[in-house]
Amino acid sequence: MRLCKALAFVHLLAAPAQAQALELSSATWGRACATARRQFVVDPFAQATGMEVGVLKYDDTVASLAMRAVEEGWDVIDMLDDQSRVTCADGLLAPLDPASILGRDTLDDFTPAPPSRCAIPQIVYARVLPYREPAFPGIKPTRFEDFFDLGRFPGPRAIRLGWAHHRR
């Protein structure tokens, strides 16, 4: 619960210029993520503060961030940890002081990733390795090691390279 209250507070303090105008924008990946963000973060925050918060969709690229964020006035952006580190190093994100924004007690509530110089994590997710069940009629892969065992589990593989590999 403390984390949810802190997220609303982060939305407010992450963009003081926009807060003065009583309007914030939150850029996210769209679809189910945007629906969940609106339902569980944006709408409760807007109701509690009376502030209007827009949810914008972006395509998760550095180019989109560089071209649209300033022009459209993005205040809060959903991105993965590697994305935030790359864009922070490139000067595309504003540095934050998480302790002054959230307070020490709230920071202790964060798991598993702590805030970084330009980002405060607020989404916890897991990576899974799905497979087509009919492709393995006998023994099924059950461990991450099985993903790399082409002898026991032949067939094509796909791995997301990571956002840092798709820079400008």
Briefly characterize the structure.
With 168 residues, the protein is mainly α. 41% of the residues lie in helices and 8% in strands. It has a domain at 2-107: Periplasmic binding protein-like II (D-Maltodextrin-Binding Protein, domain 2).
Structure report:
A three-stranded parallel β-sheet has the order 2-1-3. It has a domain at 2-107: Periplasmic binding protein-like II (D-Maltodextrin-Binding Protein, domain 2, 3-Layer(aba) Sandwich). The protein has helices at 2-13, 16-20, 31-49, 62-72, 81-89, 98-102, 104-107, 144-147, and strands at residues 23-28, 52-57, 76-77. Helix 1 (2-13) crosses helix 3 (31-49). By secondary structure, the chain is mainly alpha-helical. It is built from eight helices and three strands; from the N terminus they run H-H-E-H-E-H-E-H-H-H-H. It is 41% helix and 8% strand. Helix 3 (31-49) links the parallel strand 1 and strand 2 (52-57).
Which structural traits does this protein have?
mainly alpha; 168 residues; single chain; three-stranded parallel β-sheet; disordered C terminus
